[in-house]
Amino acid sequence: MNKLFTPYDLAGTSLKNRVVMAPMTRTRTLNNIPNESNALYYAQRASAGLLITEGLPISDEARGYLYTPGIYAKEHLPGWRTVTDAVHAKGGKIFAQLWHVGRMSHVSVHGIIPVSSGTIPAVDTTVYAWIEPEKSGPVQPSAPRALTTDEVKRVVADFVKSARMAIDAGFDGIEIMAANGFLFDQFLSSALNTRTDQYGGSIANRQRFLLETIDAIAAEIGGSKIGVRFSPFGRLYDFGVYEGEAETWMSMADALNDRELAFVHLNYQPTILVAQTPPGFGAAFREAYKGTLMAAGGFTKDIAESELAKGELDLIAFGTAYIANPDLVERMQNGWPLSEGDRTTYYGVSGSIDKGYTDYPNYGNATQPAPAKA
């Protein structure tokens, strides 16, 4: 039986299908406040069972890139209410991804030295910041400083505040960004985390920050409204191999079994050093984690259907396919060709916020960009 287009009960949130729009940074807010274009963009894609927003910084300190919409100040709330109302009017469900980049930032973004688990900088990568006044572009991240023990507690509180704001803005839940080499990943890594307090050393200590954050948010909004995103063995943003990686992830699955969450979301990063992922890891994680499991990473309709049929996954997240195909669900259901997105407009607000963002038509509504195979 084809499960991709069947309903799913996500811890009490009813999804009309098992297709998820994955979180994708699009940098379309000039003043970091969500706008009408953001509302249109998400509403256009509301036929997905679940939408997950781009990463939303939970404080000024958490921001690593220019033009990303925040969710921590009172002026952010009305814009997000406009977004959630637009999605719900189309019958969609939407989670807000809460984001702290850690060391993946530059002092020009917010006037603050980036923070991390330690002081090791990200060297072989860039963030989008100010090259000079009035000129933005890619720059190497600034060297970070280590969060103090008390500051870790403060960051936990920042996440709780943003989670509450998300629910107040009408989001159906939140996803904690613990993937892709950002702050939580920086604590999980034994190579980057050289701390000697309760947040460093053993696997349990390195997991403590994230688990305390999950528990604090659950106490505020309920565990059934929380998802967590991981990128096991991911190598984005100068994030290297570390000792005990496999054990870190398998014990994380056990720890999360004790918490009744909405889902765990794995980003497989299939084109980025996929050989680093041990054979059989996905199946082993599936066996270890008993809750709803979602994955993203180069899925096609056929691969998605196969993974669902085998029981390896419960939900399938699609990323870049959603950029040029707002009606991706309908295209996959009907076998219609997919449009190819313009990579030069994936990010940024140069010229027009809407160009390459809200101007991709549904199939048959206008002349389509050159189709790519589904």
Automatic annotation (TrEMBL):
Record CDD domains: OYE_like_FMN
Pfam entry (one): Oxidored_FMN
GO MF entries: FMN binding; oxidoreductase activity, acting on the CH-CH group of donors, NAD or NADP as acceptor
Cofactor (UniProt): FMN
Any one Gene Ontology cellular component term annotated for this protein: cytosol
UniProt keyword annotation of Oxidoreductase present: yes
Keywords for this protein: Oxidoreductase
Source species, domain of life: Bacteria
Record-annotated NADH:flavin oxidoreductase/NADH oxidase N-terminal domain positions: 3-337
Annotated family: Belongs to the NADH:flavin oxidoreductase/NADH oxidase family.
Name recorded for this polypeptide: Alkene reductase
